[in-house]
Amino acid sequence: MGSVLSTLEHPIVQAPMGGGPGTPALGAAVCEAGGLGFLAAGYRTPDDVRSELAELRQLTERPFGLNLFVPGPPASDRDALGRYAGALASEAERYGVELGEPRHDDDHWGAKLALAREERVPVVSFTFGCPDRAEIAALREAGCEVWVTVTGVDEAMAAADAGADALVVQGVEAGGHRGSHDAAAPADVGLLALLQLVGASTDLPLVATGGIATGRGVAAVLAAGAAAAQLGTAFMLTPEAATSPAHRDAMRGRGPTAVTHAFTGRPARGIENRFMREHEHEAPLAYPEVHNLTAPLRAAARERGDADAFHLWAGQAYPLALELPAGELVRRLADEARGALRQAAAPRGAQDPKDSQVP
Amino acid sequence: MGSVLSTLEHPIVQAPMGGGPGTPALGAAVCEAGGLGFLAAGYRTPDDVRSELAELRQLTERPFGLNLFVPGPPASDRDALGRYAGALASEAERYGVELGEPRHDDDHWGAKLALAREERVPVVSFTFGCPDRAEIAALREAGCEVWVTVTGVDEAMAAADAGADALVVQGVEAGGHRGSHDAAAPADVGLLALLQLVGASTDLPLVATGGIATGRGVAAVLAAGAAAAQLGTAFMLTPEAATSPAHRDAMRGRGPTAVTHAFTGRPARGIENRFMREHEHEAPLAYPEVHNLTAPLRAAARERGDADAFHLWAGQAYPLALELPAGELVRRLADEARGALRQAAAPRGAQDPKDSQVP
Fold it and tell me: In this predicted complex, what is the ipTM?
């Protein structure tokens, strides 16, 4: 098992959740409760990431993780971006903002890799692709453990070949961006099927993520062979998360989720809203160009508390998210998972899953 | 727990698999090995179902199940059916057949319900909808246990209200038809998320299905609170299954699966092939009209061993299906599941999921 995973008191990892909910306070609370907290480097400047690392380290001395987005090529179809900007003109007017510049960027890839090495971040995870062998080797040499997010067996094999220490196995249930290495072909495999498929293909430790919201969910992925469960949406209603009020309100409803690339140009799962319904068909697959284009619009809608026009990232099990302090949630999930596993492992006849006292 | 579920030696149920793979030999082998075998009433005449029940009962005295399709309304858009028939004309020519009559039927609903009662079938399960309270009550009075397939919380609540004894919880990973009660809005929730959501909404015993192919997969759904795991695709390469040679060959490949309504007019998951790619966009949602329309075409392609033009139903974990006798498979899955649960339930530190000897 990965060295950091084997030191955890509880096999529970907090998903990074870039662009909002993830905070140093949340990461530290998870670490202090015996899980593994994460910071999200995506969308932030290297200086901001450096400040957040310092802030987290003020709050906990335990190991933690930092997630980086792997950059892709610039959009090949600038005309499509122009057309999408045209289609969003009335939205911009409605929310009283100018659309952003649909520019490409690499999210400060080199600087963030250097920062992770320099800061000897205990776990550095990657989404949207796999760093190359040299980049992974340099991180490991600096004392970082390297995790790569995968959504299919091919991606898992590529990450293993490149030298990853562990794989974050992301099922289609997951909230937020699909971690698929090719945004144009996002995998749609359910977590439990994917864990079995990837587990049959590699001996690397697996961190399971996607739709895990309860102790029973944690127990399930451990039984399926994962070394730990990673939960994002489940932490979004904790007081430590920076989830916006309108987003919290939407999560108290029961609307369906769907995968959309209308907000950022890359497929991501959120609670369905008007913007997704009206613009999905005309949005190009161009990340981060579309992200940069729609950012002012989404910020304005969020500030107004208007859940119709910003991204309400949430996994399929979001109705089960609890409004509890993050540390309490970690301990509760771990207790419930242990109980569920003990119960399921009891000889048949000695158990009845529905009648017992396990929560 | 449902009375039949509590009598099983192993918490393993064979999915019915109408239209081919399911056979009395397969059902009986699963029952004799300590699981619960199933027959599929769908697409068959009541007389054929009666013969299969007799055949199964010759082979085993243990409890078993029979699955019925709940009929829906006739297609409202006959023109769309006409257009689809036109679009398939060249396929018909290619395979040297006449297309079938796109007629509606209720799959002998009343006669099959009567047969199930008369034969006192131990478990009668339903797909595509929920029987009404009176139909369920009549079955229970006759000594049948009633299971209803659900793909979302609303369907689970409706089935519980109608008096179901247990719920078959079908994740998006599942092969074959989506069991969603509204074919026009098939749920896309992953099994693990769905088990947690449904488990939080009802105390009925849950039978988990969708993408379960290994003992670890069985262990996972038990840990998630299911009373049993139901596997279909995992049994399709057994010698007892009537899976066609071309279908078996396709399952030895690694092609992706997708959900399609091009073959039957109702969403179903299969290994992607030419027919799906070429006709998905023009197929109406009209079941069983489209099923009846394409049936001769699919039969001809299957007989020729041409996997391009018939339905290759398979769940997302199909690459893990084993070519073993069904009884051996049941025992192996159960052993592996027990091992996985024991291991996951062991105190942390005393275990390492990736290094142990559990298969």
Answer: 0.95
